[in-house]
Amino acid sequence: MKPFVRLFLLLAISLSLAAGCGMEEGTGTPTEAPMSPTITMGMEPATAEMVPMGPTATEAVTGTTTMEPTGTPSEAIPDDPLGVVEIAPGDPIVIGYALVTSGPNSNLGIDSLRGVEIALDDLGNTLLGHEIQLEGEDSGCSTEGGQAAASRLITNRQIVGIVGPTCSSAGNVLAPVIDEAGMVTISPSNTAPGLTDPATHVEGFLRTAHNDKVQGALAAEFVYHELGLTSAATIHDGSIYADQLVSVFAERFEELGGTVVAQESVNTTDTDMRPVLTRMALEQPQIIYYPVFMPTGGFITRQAREVEGLGEVVLMGADGLFNPDFIEAAGDSAIGMYLSNPDLTLLGAAYQEFLKKHEEKYNEPPLSTYHANAYDATMLIAHAVEDVAVEAEDGTLYIPRQALRDALYATRNYQGLTGNLTCDENGDCADPYIAVFEITSSDLETWSPGSTAPDANPKKIYP
Q: How many angstroms separate the CA atoms of 323 and 246, rounded?
């Protein structure tokens, strides 16, 4: 054999042996992958200021770090205990949602979904050179809906993060399923205190909504100090949201010196509230506090005016009824009623710009409360993906799931639509501003949440 041929064969054999190094025999998988660096999205304002509005997530945040590959695509795959989402060149980055989009509370979920959609518009519907694809499930406003939505979402392993769910009852069962699957969800509207209580919180759940420890206490302070009322009755519908919110209200009201003279519960399937209201009338409360959802809230409001002894009683609900569906169901019986709710009137110029985009896109004002929270949740996920994503030389994108969670929990001083967001170790990220609003009209054409106009409906009256 000629010398140069022997040399060529020797080189070929050497290269073949070198290519086999670093792979388990017969598996084709790396024996050791480099650990991804610790990367956080939450930086102090002096080094990184996150701005929610902008055409891309990259342009919306300074100081973003993306780990560069160190060699072949296989060597660039991060080592992550919860697994890695692999996105091939040309494939989309998938963001999921679990929101109530049908039934009597659909306005709550559709309102949030529109916030997600506007956030994606502001990102140009792209992230790190990949199209963003939105995949969602109707989570309903119940434990059954939350379980069903979670079970379907976790089958799509390409989902990097989820926005939702809408209702705390759904979140109470959805969060553990998402967590166990190694995924993460940020709720724009789950407010029940138990969801972020250290004893029950799961790492895969965060929220941009307030904690009802704030809302319930403020409602009690409004009733006692502003209205000067000292006797109250409460109604809940068995949901974790209503049950815990009533508990916070009652505890704070009694601390202030008030008396809770009756505590009643109804089922979400009940339509005749008169037996409960009749028992309540015997205790002569000055106010009835019922932080429930639809359709329950509509039935209670109409029928309370029909029960002897309750014709002049003050009525108060919460954010679960802050939507035009409730106004339509309750009619004139809702006029003069109070609702506690996040204070949209305090949001700044970025929110006013959001409202313009909303009007242009949907030809109507927001349907409810949590559109801005959903916008912020979407942006937090997008920024976290940017922070931890690893791009290989062949263009494949790798998103490590635990690193993504860590980036979300590291959020500090993020300037969102809803305020200055900082996520604590239990997943509470909100900058809570709660106010009390009065319903001034049953005319749906006057519905104007967040308006500061003198004729706004609902109209902010406290603080």
A: 20
Mean pLDDT of 168-173: 98
- Strands 259-265 and 231-236 turn out to be parallel
Which residues, listed in sequence order, are joined to residue 316 by a DSSP beta bridge? 289, 338
Distance (Å, rounded) from C-alpha 55 to C-alpha 74?
32
**Tell me: the pLDDT tens digits for 296-347?**
999 999 999 999 999 999 999 999 999 999 999 999 999 999 999 999 999 9
Distances (CA, A) of 357 to 96, 115, 314, 360, 453: 22, 10, 37, 5, 20
* Phi, psi angle pair for 215, to nearest 5°: -65, -45
DSSP state of 458: S
Give the C-alpha distances (Å, rounded to integers) separating 305 from 123, 277, 320, 364, 417.
48, 10, 21, 31, 38
Which residue in this structure is represented by tokens 């945040």? 61
Structural domains for the chain: 73-209+370-432 (3.40.50.2300), 213-344+435-462 (3.40.50.2300)
Phi, psi of 344 (to 5 degrees): -70, -20
DSSP result, 422-438: ---TTSB-----EEEEE
| Helix or strand run (H / E) with residue 235 | strand 231-236
Alpha-carbon span 436 to 432, nearest angstrom = 13
Burial of residue 373, with CB atoms counted within 10 A of its CB: 0-12 exposed, 13-18 middle, 19 or more buried? buried
What's the pLDDT at 457?
96
Query: Helix or strand or coil: residue 391?
Result: strand
Q: How many CB atoms lie within 10 A of CB 424?
A: 11
Q: Please check whether residue 240 is in contact with residue 172, taking contact to mean a CB–CB distance below 8 angstroms.
A: yes
The C-alpha atoms of residue 377 and residue 380 are separated, in whole angstroms, by 5
Select from 135, 191, 182 the least CA-distant residue to 163: 135
pTM: 0.84
Residue type, 150: A
